[in-house]
Amino acid sequence: MKLLILDRDGVINHDSDAYIKSVEEWLPLPGSIEAIAQLSKAGWTVAVATNQSGIARGYYDLAVLNAMHERLRALVAEQGGEVGLIVHCPHGPDDGCDCRKPKPGMLKTIAAHYDVALAGVWFVGDSLGDLEAAKAVDCQPVLVRTGKGEKTLGKTLPVGTLIFDDLAAIAAELIHN
Ligand SMILES: O=P(O)(O)OC[C@@H](O)[C@H]1O[C@@H](OP(=O)(O)O)[C@@H](O)[C@@H](O)[C@@H]1O
Ligand SMILES: [Mg+2]
Ligand SMILES: [Zn+2]
């Protein structure tokens, strides 16, 4: 199975240091919806693994988060594609959960859902924690320059991290190579 796992904020949609707290604040990055739709139509299963500590912090609730994800699904469906499993971590940094990146719990959840191995599966993120989560379960870490990606580029990246400008460039690489 062709499985691609994406971080959400800074990869699919614009991110904000003030968190993305409403559907109105949830704005797709240029080309990201089209990229997901094209990948889906090319036979890729596109899953999402996203930290959402804003829930633990009380900035928004699960209903708002689900509305954001219904919006994502609707936009991709308008382009003839579909989004696979979306897994989120609702916890805060001090909650000691197993799902908050850089822990790989959400990646393991996605692998179990599809009954596939994670080795070599591309996990695309904009933060160092995304790349570390990938490395922890032998996924291929992939950094995009969108969101916090440019800032992350200044840090020490896991060996073998691939770097792309954005999700559209990743789709072009995966579909045409
Ligand atoms: O990039 P993903 O995983 O989809 O989601 C990141 C968001 O949950 C938020 O994560 C926060 O980090 P803390 O959770 O406060 O450490 C901050 O980086 C926010 O700017 C960001 O919007
Ligand atoms: Mg992110
Ligand atoms: Zn968690």
TrEMBL record:
Pfam family membership, one: Hydrolase_like
Site positions for Stabilizes the phosphoryl group: T50, K101
Entry cofactors: Mg(2+); Zn(2+)
Subunit structure: Monomer.
Catalysed reactions listed for this entry: D-glycero-beta-D-manno-heptose 1,7-bisphosphate + H2O = D-glycero-beta-D-manno-heptose 1-phosphate + phosphate
Subcellular location: Cytoplasm
Annotated positions binding Mg(2+): D7, D9, D126
Organism: Pseudomonas thivervalensis
GO cellular component, one term: cytoplasm
Protein's pathway: Bacterial outer membrane biogenesis; LPS core biosynthesis; Nucleotide-sugar biosynthesis; ADP-L-glycero-beta-D-manno-heptose biosynthesis; ADP-L-glycero-beta-D-manno-heptose from D-glycero-beta-D-manno-heptose 7-phosphate: step 2/4
Name of the top EC class for this enzyme: hydrolase
Name listed for the protein in its UniProt record: D,D-heptose 1,7-bisphosphate phosphatase
SUPFAM superfamilies given in the database record: HAD-like
EC number: 3.1.3.-
Protein family: Belongs to the gmhB family.
Active site: D7, D9
Keyword match Metal-binding: yes
